[in-house]
User: Fold this.
Amino acid sequence: MGRRAGRCGFPAGAGHHGLVPGAEVRVSGLTHAYPTRHGPLVVLDDIEVEIPSGGYVSLVGSSGAGKSTLLSLIGGLEAAQQGVVEVGNRSLAGLSRDGLAAFRCATVGFVFQHFGLLDALTAAENIDVACSLAGLPRRERRRRTTELLAAVGLAERADHRPRELSGGERQRVAIARALANRPRLVLADEPTGNLDDDSTARVIGLLESMPADHGCTLVLVTHDRALAARAPLRLQLRDARLEPAA
Amino acid sequence: MSWRDAIALAATSVRRSLGRAALTVSAVALAAALLTALLTIAGTARTRVLDQLSKGGPLSGIQVAAAAPDPGEIDQDDPKPGRAKILDDAALERIADLPEVRYALPVVASRLFVISPTKMRTREVEPFVETAVGVDLRQLPRLPISVIAGRAPSPRSMTEVAVTEAWLERYGLDRTQAASVLGTEIEAGAGRTDAEADTGDGERRRRVIRGRWMRLQVVGVVAQEAGSGSMLVSLPLARASREWSASGIDGGDAVGLSPSPYAGVLVAADSLDSIGRVRDRIGDVGYSTSSPENLIASVRRYLQVVEIVLTAIGVIALAVAGLGITNALLAAVRERRREIGVLKAIGARDRDVLRIFLVEATCLGLLGGVIGAALGYVAARSVGAVVNGYLQDQGLVGVRPTVPTVVILSVIAGSAVLALIGGALPALRAARLPAREAVGGS
Amino acid sequence: MTGGRAVRAVTIVVAVCGSLIGCSSGTDGAGTTTTVVARGSGPVTYVALGSTDTNGGRDGQPLVETWPHLLYRTHLPARAVFVNQARDRSTVADALREQVDEAVELNPTVATVWFGTSDAFAGTDPEQFGDDLTTLVDRIVGTGAQVVLILGPPPPDGEVDTVPYTDQAEAVAAAAGVEVVDLRDATTAPDDQADIADAVSAALGPIE
Assistant:
């Protein structure tokens, strides 16, 4: 059974109920600057990187080094000013805002430091929104939501709103939501930045299981070098340049 | 994102900021209530006034004078008549046969010498000459006559008279004392000029005014515009008096009697819209006319303007409420930048976000419109009850303000549309937010 | 009292009571007398024919205070119409030319006739006066009107002798069968306008 393109409209990866081939990421000549009162601030300078399909990459760097910017560009949250970003053999260059949205919908799952949950919705409803955007039919959405909540160990908290969940539980819901559209690429931006050690361990465990259990490529941005060291491929951003981490 | 999901998300957003939503809805509701009440009141007033005017009764009547039209006064409501002209049975018949004439009632005027009764006196009043106006009182509802006290004379009575306020003023009485003159008996005599016999001593023939006297009982006090005169009598009485005066050797000239058999004709057109045409035709027959035609047209225009102004006031109020929605949603967009970014990050397109915010705005407007229309309905009925009480105290027919369904639906729809317009800017702003807001802005 | 006489008595009592029902006082103005309130519905027209004495010329009263007007105001029903045809210094011959035709056209219900003094001043032949008066009275009587003929007093200063004329008038009245109001005796006859009106009213009887 082929995977439906769904509402996203962006060609989805093959496979269903099984491993989704992770998206290969290729970045070449990526340069990005932000305008400031004192002139453009270059945060990425001629970045080159290749992340294999199903790979697990950690990215470290000091605060303001451009880690989130690189993640945004790879994830299609904004368009690159200069250079090429290819995900799953598709270039993001020239995509419209709707095109980028479709790309994100079909390919990317995000996990944010701030969890990114909608406060007015329950845990299940947060996941359901992502399922809805992915174009899943209503009955399928219900099934998928239940499945994902169970996968992150929060089946019994389905009807709880974010303010009724701990930080770790919120992040687990966020992870479940990130998986709703069966992404080929998961981008986690400081996912444990607001968590205690126990929650951190649990969340990292879930994230690290993604390449193996879900077949997706994982890019983990963290300032925690210990966490970063667990990734097979370790990169760091310094002075707008990307280099292997020590 | 489907409309259903957008509505669900919009509803949860409203629930999240319930206080702000309640204030916004209240503003819309108040504006909608104001618009509903104003439209209802204006519509009721217009309907009532035009109903009265369009009945073809006295208010829309045409008064034909025993005079030719003055070319310089053609379009006036109350033109100065031209030279005097005989208005007789033949002319009456011609006028009655004109197209779009519903009826034509003749007015007979006679001049009477009146002896003041003691009972009516609060001041000394010398005998005076007055004009008695005679009309077919069987047609009273069609006549420009309103009874202030008592009643109008019986249609065939030769002994009854109704007097006007001008008559009361002679005796130092005012309208509030009208009832005090009822039952009073007055003496009135129609004068006729006779010639004295030649005495044979060289004196020339001397003219004498001979009176035909009647005793009339005042049965009512009226306001009448059928003719100029402060006495209203039956047509037979007026005719008898007039014939007596006209039989004199001068045709009644010495007593101020007009040579025209009829002092005027009261004409009713088929409808308000035909008044102008009927007046023109009567002018072609050769007589001067007056009617509140321009006044009626002015009243209609004025009512339309009033309705427009009231509607505009209500719409302005709604627009202000719409601005409130804009303000509230702009604040919401500012507060939810990251949330909007996250939505986009997980796959929402710009138009999905636009949809959510437009639905939110429309829901606020719709809810406010429904509540406001209901409040407006209650307000209009309450105002109607108060006005009714006042009118009935004044002895007038009351009004029943009805709230047309189209007004209710229009107000609700209008509220929703204005809210949609008000929500457009915030929705566009939200839609244009970059997805990068999800990771903390640019 | 037998049964038949009792019934007649009751009938008379009822009739008298009935005639008293509806009595009302007169309106304002000179005098307050009782007048039978009109129960009839037909027109009542009173025409006065005469000369200076009927026209208010003798004492110079306003017309509306002359005895015919008082008669009309206080003794006739409210629906009555009154026309005073009298003219100053009118003789009967004048009246035949100027008063009678219109009086007949008015179709009077009640008529008063008073001539003599002006004819005396004019020197009319009494017999001619009588003939003319007969013609006049007959014409008025011919309309069906109730006629009262007044025999007036002589002028106070005795300028002329009115006796021949009043005698003729009396004879005319007798021949025509009309009521007479005799004012010839200046010592006993009323000379006040209201009193004259009362005397004429008494001669007319109730008018309904």
